[in-house]
Design a protein that fits this description.
It contains 10 helices and 10 strands. It has a 5-stranded parallel sheet with strand order 2-1-3-4-5. Strands 6-7-8-9-10 form a 5-stranded mixed sheet, with helices on both faces.
Length: about 300
């Protein structure tokens, strides 16, 4: 059990306890850290959130909309800190990793004292479930963070990442607290502001990965209609960044959530070419697209 295992190994010598997510955190990564912080506080443990990189504009805006200050979640990691990872299983943050709560498939599990990684609609939902199972108190705020993390991380419950078993809990929780699910659905679509300069769009929701000798970059946009996306100039900009920053591959995803379409564009540096595949469903980048690419590269 996540919380009992974490509490059993926490160092009583007073090392700072830091909660952090993946580089360039999204809404779920921030919500998972906030949930972990609140639940650990119930256990008498004070933990600091130290996100890093840059949050995407939409996640930032939604957090602010619901009364959170995203800027307050970014801070340098204190010296001699121990780390608990939320919504990721690796980090470049300084400090000793003692635990993680993640929901992204991995080929080889990292070596750390407490490792929890299972399929779930969101990392926030995992932490919420683990806290409830341990007997910690939930309230309106923890319920909202967990529920909203699901909507924000599954394209409003339409992606392959969404767990159908969460539906009854969502319905009951929304009714109990009078949460506006229609508003969360609009937020969860994560529609991109396509009026931004193309260089910003090209790195929208940017992620970077290293698989063996290969360096991979990825970004994505979400649009109401395919024709609204300046795809030609976007791909040229992604290609230029890929070559200038020495990535081996660039994965660019274009989501059309209202039509349940995911277009996956893969640039191969060696071939200097893009390959496009269209999928009649909302794929999860972290659960479907990137793991498939990792398996392909490892097989090479």
């Amino acid at each position: 059990m996540l919380f009992s295992d974490i509490l059993a190994i926490l160092d009583p010598s007073g090392h700072p306890i830091v909660l952090t997510g993946h580089l360039h955190p999204d809404y779920d990564s921030a919500a998972a850290c906030l949930l972990m912080q609140q639940f650990l506080k119930q256990c008498g443990v004070n933990a600091q959130i130290c996100l890093y990189g840059k949050m995407d504009a939409h996640s930032d805006a939604v957090l602010r909309k619901y009364g959170y200050n995203p800027g307050a979640l970014f801070a340098p990691v204190p010296k001699n800190a121990v780390l608990i990872l939320c919504d990721c299983h690796t980090t470049t943050q300084p400090g000793k990793v003692i635990a993680c709560a993640d929901h992204h498939p991995v080929i080889e599990a990292p070596d750390m004292p407490v490792y929890l990684n299972r399929s779930a609609s969101s990392a926030g939902r995992i932490i919420y479930q683990e806290a409830a199972a341990y007997g910690l108190q939930t309230d309106r705020e923890t319920d909202f963070l967990a529920l909203s993390s699901i909507y924000m991380d599954t394209r409003a419950c339409s992606s392959t990442k969404f767990q159908e078993a969460d539906k009854p809990w969502i319905i009951e929780t929304a009714a109990r607290w009078n949460f506006d699910l229609s508003a969360l659905e609009r937020d969860g679509l994560c529609l991109t502001d396509l009026t931004q300069p193309v260089d910003l769009l090209a790195k929208n929701d940017f992620r970077a990965y290293t698989f063996g000798k290969y360096r991979v970059a990825s970004s994505c946009v979400q649009a109401e209609k395919e024709k609204a996306v300046p795809m030609g100039t976007l791909l040229e900009c992604c290609k230029s960044i890929c070559l200038s920053e020495s990535y081996d591959y660039w994965v660019f995803l274009c989501y059309i959530p209202l039509e349940k379409i995911t277009d996956v564009y893969l640039f191969n540096r060696d071939e200097n070419a893009w390959n496009k595949t269209r999928h009649a469903r909302i794929l999860s980048r972290g659960n479907d697209v990137i793991p498939a690419l990792e398996r392909m590269l490892i097989d090479r």
